[in-house]
Amino acid sequence: MKSWIGCLTLIAAASGALAADAGAGKARAEAVCSACHGINGVSVADAIPNLAGQKAAYLEAQLKALKDGSRKHPVMGAIAAQLSADDIGNVAAYFASLPGVSTSAAKSDFLPNLAKSGVTFPENYKSSFVKYHTINFPATRQVRYYYANPAALQAAKDGKDLPNGAYLFAEVYSAKLDADKRPITGSDGFFIADQLIFYTAMARDAGWGKDIPEMLRNEEWNYAVFTLAKQQRPGVNQAECLACHKPLDKTSYTFTLNQLTSVAKAR
Questions:
Q1: Which of 5, 80, 173, 176 has its CA 20 to 30 A from that of 151?
Q2: Range of 65's domain?
């Protein structure tokens, strides 16, 4: 009896695999997945896995785990949550249909509509923005200082969504370390800043989101990382920022809206 039931299970699983539509999976992959994994299943960065030639059952299982939350990932969890059961089967079938690649395969290019960002460096942020938050990052031994421009502050003060023209900016510092290479904490509970190492930014304006796939789009928000020379850092995939912030639609796609609102209302 057990053997018979097992055979039926295998047949049902095989039938499900056959029913998947690799063509529909390719369309979904072109729209979203290719931003990180490449349309041919060759990823855009070493830290992102290639999917070409992976077993369909494995890919489907991982996407289902990401969708139901049993596997945690800030970027992929947000994408998988938007996929239907058919999407998951179709995408898995598509990537499984591709020829496998070696780990040394050349990386895919970023999608052109995600490689660009409308965010420019705010030269006068020290005088025109307001510092509203500080966060320790123990894993990277960093501390970040967050600033907001007047448009963002006023909207937060009024209890409104952050509008076009809003700009949030962060200075990223390495933390001072003790003799055991542990971050030194000041009396305020935050790491003591050592060296400024880069900047991050998110801003929005009319039309900035029009070319971004809907599953990634954060209304009109764009993201950027700036070097100490105040230039956009090359090799930053905006898709990862968009996916990470995607679930935050109730808080203007912002992790720090509560802190921003508190400071804005106190001014």
A1: 173
A2: 2-109
